[in-house]
Amino acid sequence: KIILGIESSCDETGVGIVRLGADGGLELLADEVASSVEQHARFGGVVPEVASRAHLEAMVPTMGRALHAAGIALTDVDAFAVTAGPGLAGALLVGVSAAKAYAAAVDRPLYGVNHLAGHVAADTLQHGPLPQPCLALLVSGGHTQLLLVEDIAGKITEIGSTIDDAAGEAYDKVARVLDLPYPGGPPIDKMAKQGDPNAIAFPRGLTGPRDARFDFSFSGLKTAVARWVEARERDGEPVPVPDVAASFQEAVADVLTAKAVRAATELGVDTMVISGGVAANSRLSGLAAERCAAAGISLRVPRPRLCTDNGAMIAALGAHLVAAGAEPSPPDFGATPGLPVDTVLL
Ligand code: ATP
Ligand code: MG
Ligand code: FE
User: Fold this and answer.
1) pLDDT of residue 208
2) Which amino acids are annotated as binding site for substrate, given as ranges?
3) Which of 37, 46, 171 is the best mutation target for the ligand 1 pocket, counting ligand atoms within 8 Å of the beta carbon and taking the most?
């Protein structure tokens, strides 16, 4: 069976196509992404109106490129999946409307699915079926969550989440303080390689002995970095950008991996998946590999292309739903900006 996935929750217009084998295995046939990230760069963050307009312009061409890359026609698609939420309302509307139109045109079922579950499903395109239950650390521009995945096609429970900024958001804000380009993850990652991660002791939010839960906080860290840089500038001293980047990155990777490993251990789960844009971070995956190995947990991190927003991950989740025999979404389902992570399918 061929499943086509459409993603438009933020600033990437993605169309992915996968083939679901009789054995439940997935083959990636196409993964086309058009990003409006450059249009948002000068604002230092995604501008919703600009993103919606860009989706509208990119949707049909991206669909054309994906079908061409897979070497199929629209009539060859057996089922469609689309991100129904969470995300920006206007951005989601473009994808959901397009998906309804394409599915109706060829009279195929349509699954309105959860973007966050899609991030987790992306890993199955690279590493095969997910051992379940597993723990997912989802770290992106808008989310930072620990999820217990008992069934990717239906049972996902949030066990922790950020109480303020997402990890990616902290990267983007710190990049701004350091005069590095937007989005901040890649340039900070690169700078950090030339710096000393122990140069500055930045705070690790919510890691005290009384913080037994699995929530995260990055807003204090972001403020601490800004204060540190301001103090330097006030004293007329140069800012050692590589050391600040490395020390900030170390604080983020330390907190994320420490909590994720503790959660997996306490829940008795022996597989961890890291996904979302920040999973592309070299120190996060490096430290996670070390700590997971020490704790006897097997770690899966998809390649960077599958970590950031794309349509292939939505197609993958759609394929898992088809394989599980799930009912397609009702024809009147809408875009749901605040869709909770435990709702995998509308
Ligand atoms: P969400 O999935 O929560 O709706 P989003 O679509 O913005 O949000 P992604 O595209 O998954 O999220 O991730 C984008 C974020 O990933 C940005 O904040 C960016 O700075 C961060 N990022 C990308 N590469 C890296 C990296 N190497 N290190 C750290 N962060 C990174
Ligand atoms: Mg993005
Ligand atoms: Fe995302």
Assistant:
1) 75
2) 138-142, 172, 185, 189, 281
3) 171
